[in-house]
Every structure is written in structure tokens, then in C-alpha cells.
Amino acid sequence: MDNCYSGFSYWKDFTTATLTASRVYYVSTYNTSLNCISEGRSPVTVTVNPIIAPGGVMQESIRIEGITQDNQIYTLPTDQKTTQIAYLDGLQRVNQKVIVKASP
Q1: What is the biggest distance separating any 2 CA atoms in the chain, rounded to whole angstroms?
Q2: Average pLDDT, stretch 53-80?
Q3: Following CA atoms 65, 70, 73, 74 in sequence, which dihedral angle do they give, to the nearest 10 degrees?
Q4: Distance from CA of residue 92 to its chain's centroid?
């Protein structure tokens, strides 16, 4: 007996669409020498973990010595630090860079 199931066709190369939610797929094995697919199917659970991407990235360059804590940066005047914000698109590419309180 060849242990084949002929109740449905198969795709040799299958690519799923973009997954936005978790779901279960069922897979079968394909026997190339007998040109048939197995009757049994195995569940495969796909878990989608969405990435929360930032809309922008802020970088602060400190121009004085002795700053060791974040809370010290926030109170510095603009002549002692430079703040740059890079705004990103949906693919995390930089769309625009802005330097806060700077002249050209």
C-alpha cells in the first residue's frame, strides 16, 4: 500500500500572506517518489508578536563634563547640550532630522 491521500492537491512552494494575528496552520508531508501527500496533518501554531516601533528617536549630545544621570540632562540649558530628533517612517527609515533650538 502506498499510504497516499488523493483527496486534495498540494502546493510545492507556499508563501503565507503577511500575518497580523496568531493562527493554526496544518501541514502534510509530500512523498516525491510516489507523487502523493500524506493523509495525516500536523497542526503548526503561528504566534504573531507585533513590534511597537518608535515614531522618532531623540539623541542628546552633552557639551560639558560631569553629567552622569538622566535627570541632569533634562535641566541643562541649550548651550550645554544639543538635542536631535530623527522622525522615522513605517519601515524605520529616517524621514526627517530636526535639531531642537538650533540655528542653521
Answers
A1: 84
A2: 90
A3: -170
A4: 10
Q: Is 76 exposed, middle or buried (0-12, 13-18, 19+ CB in 10 A)?
A: middle
How high is the pLDDT of residue 6?
53
Grid-cell match 494575528, residue found: 21
Q: CA-to-CA distance for 16 and 32, rounded, in angstroms?
A: 23
Q: What is the rounded CA–CA span in Å between residue 26 and residue 45?
A: 9
> By the 8 A CB rule, do 63 and 80 touch?
yes
* Nearest residue to 100 via CA among 66, 72, 60, 46: 60
**Angle CA(61)–CA(66)–CA(70) in degrees, nearest 5?**
60
pLDDT at 95: 92
